[in-house]
From TrEMBL:
Keywords: ATP-binding, Nucleotide-binding, Transport. Gene3D superfamilies: P-loop containing nucleotide triphosphate hydrolases (3.40.50.300). Belongs to the ABC transporter superfamily. Transmembrane segments: none annotated. It comes from Kosmotoga olearia (strain ATCC BAA-1733 / DSM 21960 / TBF 19.5.1). It holds the Pfam family ABC_tran. This is ABC transporter related. GO terms for molecular function: ATP binding; ATP hydrolysis activity.
Amino acid sequence: MLEVLGVKKKYKNGIEALKGVSLKIETGKKVAIFGENGAGKTTLLKIIATFLLPDEGTVTLEGVNIIKNNKYARKNITISTGMERSFYYRLTVKQNLEFFGMLNGLVGKELKKKVEKVIEKTGLEEYGKIRYMELSKGLKRRLDIARALLKEAKVYIFDEPCAGIDIKTRGGIHKIVNELGKEKIVIFATHEIEDLKKMDRIIAIHNGIKVGELLVHENRDCVENFVKGVC
Ligand SMILES: Nc1ncnc2c1ncn2[C@@H]1O[C@H](COP(=O)(O)OP(=O)(O)OP(=O)(O)O)[C@@H](O)[C@H]1O
Ligand SMILES: [Mg+2]
């Protein structure tokens, strides 16, 4: 169980990105975080991934306060943010993955196997030897997802993973998410109705506040109306 309790975040420029957000996500669930541009989704995801510290509130994973226990958080939480600057431009797809795999403690055969596995999962087989700077936007996004999959985590966070992705690859991402969602906690920020319908639950954020939740399986026909109602 991941529990976010009363999380607040104000940036240095005075913007209050989160004004007291609380939510709970059980293991074996995939949850969408939905909200318009600037709603606070990425801020919330970065706090859960311990990339950012909240001003107030706590985040616990299986009862462990992850804000105070950074090591536990880094071991058990993985995030795909789509931040291009976090890759080595001159290294190939494979070299980038090998580097980040090593940072996750993988070496030798285990590292090679894992890199091959995530390349296959994200359909990057043909691009292993291509340098990061030579990849298209969608392929960069896929590599970012592949990197997040290098870790055997309890929580997988995807910040708009389908942005700029073609239909076929989108299907592949949902397959990965579905698989992970059976045993892990998946948090998936998105604006897309089609993505929302594939989740177990939708949590809507507006202006730094949680404004609604919807259980998708019981209310599949209501997703459109739910979305219209909160934005
Ligand atoms: N590093 C930062 N410094 C200052 N303000 C920021 C920073 N990052 C985000 N903000 C502001 O915080 C608010 C929430 O931003 P956030 O990126 O969390 O929104 P979001 O819901 O992810 O939006 P989007 O759908 O566009 O990705 C916005 O008003 C944004 O301008
Ligand atoms: Mg965002």
